[in-house]
Design goal:
- This protein is of the alpha/beta class and 178 residues long.
- It has a single domain, classed as Rossmann fold, CATH 3.40.50.1010.
- The protein has nine helices and seven strands.
- It has a seven-stranded mixed beta sheet with strand order 5-6-4-1-2-3-7.
- Strand 5 and strand 6 form a beta hairpin.
- The longest helix is centred in the middle third of the chain and has 14 residues.
- It is globular.
- 36% of the residues are buried.
Length: 178
């Protein structure tokens, strides 16, 4: 099964637009179409944006407890990548470097993002960087591409301990519920 990193732009979008492609990607993660790999930093950034960005809070109305439940759901369905390498790939935003570091630590096949700096890279080492719509198309139309990509990753995987299951996977709240 392929390893995939969703960045905070996709996670925020999934929370705000329950019927959008980003939310659908989380449904696929819950159904184990791919392994969702995140870091504490990606989850914390998502939570911070949803709780503290007034521009978003004015446009979308939701209680803080919905954000907390969403974050708990993310932790329940994701593998938390640890032992992140230090990299300097994106000059404008060090948070983007953290997303790439997560992908490298998890031996990910894909980073799914809406971030223009990341998308402009298209690839970092062996990690493809795609928009949610592109990854959804891959999921829908080319599941064999995911299998082949995952098989290639397995051949190159030296240390599987960098991507560990979150201990809270026993009870998996529905992350789509407000």
């Amino acid at each position: 099964m392929p390893e995939v990193v969703l960045d905070s732009t996709v996670l925020v979008s999934a929370f705000l637009t329950k019927t959008g492609v980003s939310a659908e990607l989380l449904v696929h993660a819950r159904r184990k179409a791919y392994h969702l790999c995140l870091t504490d930093q990606i989850i914390e950034e998502t939570q911070q944006v949803l709780l503290e960005y007034q521009r978003i809070r004015k446009r979308y109305h939701y209680p803080d407890r919905s954000v907390i439940q969403f974050v708990k759901g993310l932790r329940a369905i994701s593998h938390l990548s640890t032992n992140l390498p230090e990299i300097r790939a994106v000059l404008r935003d060090p948070n983007d470097d953290a997303v790439i570091a997560c992908a490298l630590a998890a031996k990910a096949n894909y980073i799914v993002t809406r971030d223009k700096d990341l998308l402009s890279m298209e690839k970092y080492e062996r990690v493809r960087i795609v928009a949610p719509e592109k990854f959804m198309k891959i999921l829908r139309e080319n599941p064999q591409d995911l299998i082949n990509s995952a098989s290639e990753r397995i051949l190159h995987r030296l240390d599987a301990t960098n991507c560990r299951s979150s201990p809270s996977t026993k009870s998996m709240p529905n992350i789509m519920d407000p």
